[in-house]
Sequence to fold (165 residues):
Amino acid sequence: MIRQPSRYCTVELQAAPARIGQVRRIVSAQLRHWHLDALVDPAALGVTELLANVHRHARPSKYCTVELCALLDQLTVSVHDEDPRLPRLRAADDWETCGRGLALIAALSESWGVRPESTGKAVWFTLPALTATPGGVPAVHTHWDPPPLEDVRTAAVGATGAPPP
Fold:
């Protein structure tokens, strides 16, 4: 199957705390514009973590680019910066106040990774996006969404023959 980007957005910024909040709001607004409302919270959280890493660790510059690419079945969020050093996932001790950002990215995303680039690196993650419903109408589903209440009741009735108490 050929997967062409159906929607694409980039934001360039200096990863300063005030700008990180602005980009979080831009990402949220863009996803709502694309009718990907269910992805707003995980995407905004993930981009905030990646931009915080740029702010804290990137050298020589805090300049970076955030890219959103929505395909038919997934959203890819990537942050490109000019620092060639690649981050790595590590286990933070209980007493540590930082060091959990990539673990959070791994937990909230379908997949994630780091790739070197000629001008630095990109850190990216994907979230599941559109799937088809039985009526053929696109719907947004995420692996962290609970099943709708109607499905739970139907499953309970079908399994026991009686409605749940």
Summary: Residues 131-165 have pLDDT under 50 and may be disordered. The beta strands are 7-14, 63-70, 74-81, 111-117, 120-128, 130-132, 138-140. Helices lie at 17-33, 40-57, 101-108, 149-160. DSSP finds four helices and seven strands in the chain.
